Structure prediction request, 851 residues.
Amino acid sequence: MTAALELVGVTHRFGETTVLDDVSFVVEPGTITALLGPSGVGKTTLLRVICGFETPQGGRIVVGGRDVARDGVSLVAAEHRGIGLVPQEGALFPHLSVANNVSFGLKQRRSRESRERTSHLLDLVGLAQCADQRPEELSGGMQQRVALARALAPNPSVVLLDEPFASLDAALRMSVRAEIVEALRRSGATALWVTHDQQEALSCADHVAVMLDRRIVQRGAPVELYRSPATQAVAEFVGEAVQLRGRASGTTVACAMGELPLAQQVVGEVTVIVRPEQIELDDAPTATSPRGRVIASRFYGHDGEIDVRLPNDEIVIARLHARLLPTVGADVALRVTGQALAFA
Amino acid sequence: MTRLLRAPVAIAAPALLAAVVAIVPLIYLFDASLSRGVDAAVREVIVSRTTILLIRTLLLTLVVTAACAIVGTINAWLVVRSSLPLRPVWLILLAMPLAIPSYLSAFAWVSWIPTMSGFLGASVVLTLASYPYVMLPVAAMLRGADPMLEDVARSLGVSAQSALVRVTLRQVAPAIWAGSLLVALYVVSDFGAVAAMRLETFTWVIYGAYRAGFNPARAATLALMLVALALLLILLERRFRTRVTQRIGAGTARSSVRRAPFTLVAPALIVALTSIGFGIGVPLVSSISWTRNGTAITDWSAVLETIMSSFWIGFLTGLATLLLALPVGILLARFKGHLANVTEGAVFVTHSLPGIVVALSVVYLGINLVRPLYQQVPLLVFGQVIIFLPLVVGAVRTSIEQSRVALEDVSRSLGVSRMATVFRVTIPLATPGIAAGGALAVLGAMKELPTTLILRPTSVETLATSIWKYSVVSDFGAVGPYAVALMFLAALPTALLSHVAVAKVAR
Prediction:
């Protein structure tokens, strides 16, 4: 099967600064891939390069089996690449109605097919009743859905979403995110979704490509990424991580939390990483159970977290059911479930 | 984000044409100035009468610019931040002096108080004519400035008066500088008011040297000095212009209107009433009374014909200027590279060319290169385009810069070509700026005097030249109808201009 989008060794510089360093990944048709990375890591530049607003100095970009840029030359102009774009904050055309925004990229905008396509897409994003409204009359979430409908209208090979919910407040973000994913799934579109929010990436995407320091460091299914991160940096960035010093001896590692089984074979001085949800209160402690004093407690409603200072002054975070949260100052015994990660 | 893309030919070609058009006058100036050799030119610069001329021009510029900065800022504050009723009406009334040519005001004042003529009269007339250049940008910036800062200052124990000075005035400082530059350039290049007030400044002496006909080299050398002076002003403003501060975080938009204390509103109101009374009251009342006294001898068909030619020349100039300014504005706002730099430089230099200088160089061009067009409408329009291009480019460019680049990117990602995007996205979004630019050019062309005097076809009279023709011989009864017509005709673009200038920031 031809990839909807493929990047091979894409490199881009602004003057002396390298912004993209040997970036390679594949987006399969009909899937949602999240491009996850912290702010300022080059994600937006990568989108602009894929769209054709910047020409990368090296590497190859293939859209639907066709080379659009290769070795520092743009072969296909932005308007002919067939790549839909949903920018930050939607960026609807303020001078056009919702329907005219959606039909903007269609040929023969006044034809019957165009009108049908427009109303079909507005249906798809659940905004059929808003066709004649002006963009400024819509809420932020609705504007995002119109922006998606507009990007999907010309049937692009792939839709790029650039931090689409950055401007929405937390409560709204969840529901709009669900609606957008739903609409993308129903339309069968291929999407590359740029975000710095790891929860968003893990929950919405089929695949996640993690971008750190100008390059893609790992690509895989969300579960794979969380369970077996390729590097310590990925482990720290994707999900919360408790770090401990340890000495690994093949399949186990010795650290302040005791002798823990390892997910992969390592030997020597390592940084041990466990997830806060792996750390539990030990209700039947033994003499060897790790112990510590609670120095902070955070109540989130459904659950909560405590910071525990171990005897060697290392600090671990445990995620607990809200009703189990001990008070600050209490001495607790802990245990670790599952396997730990270790990086040399 | 920098955009290093090359501009499409359809934008690059007209922009380059605009750059060439803008540079034409300078070529003439150097050629004519050096026609009697470098020594003669240098001698012209260092003679003592030139020094006196320079000092007088500088002093006038300084006095008028300072006065405009104060009056314009106070008026802007009154129409944006006070709780005065009917503030939109006040804004338009306060902007109306833009509709009145400076020479008309000057003649009105001199015919009312003959002893006013000279430095004092020129200062008063030019201040009243050009404070809107400060008021409009300051009002626009005040509209967009975060009123919360003033509230924060008050909560920190600062009085309303000092909050105004320590916070709000700082916020709008860039607009005050920018407006003051426009005023200074206007004063340096004004011909009509100083001529009517019989104050010998550069422009009047240049006109005299040209009219006398025997010394084009002197006229050109003085003109070059004038250009240098104007360039210096532009550089000075760039040096002192402070950065625009932006509000951090969105927050909720709140009304910028504050219930200012009476001790602040009362003096501001006096300034505003004085501006309106003297700025539009004096010329309007004079013109109407002249008309009443002179109706018996007025040839109304001639007046009508003059109105039509003024209208046409204004319309053609507005259209031609916009057609050139649009590609230049798009180029400067959206593209980087050699072409953009060259064009920006050319337009930048043009801003320093006074009307009289442009007129002289276009005459030279007409006589030497396009003889059949000399003293024909196309050449007149050409000259006026050069004069108004920088202002119109400024308006268009700002407007385009304010619209989001992301919208153009989206358009292209939807399969719309770069040129089609210009027409379907860029231009519609910049409509307010384009309208303001067009209004500026039309308004300018209708009031413009020296270029029209020199370049118009001999058979054609415009409202401006008619007012001038009768005024210089003190036949005010004949001036009246033309003056009234010009003021009413110019009121429309002025109202549009002030509305757009202040409204666009409210979004």
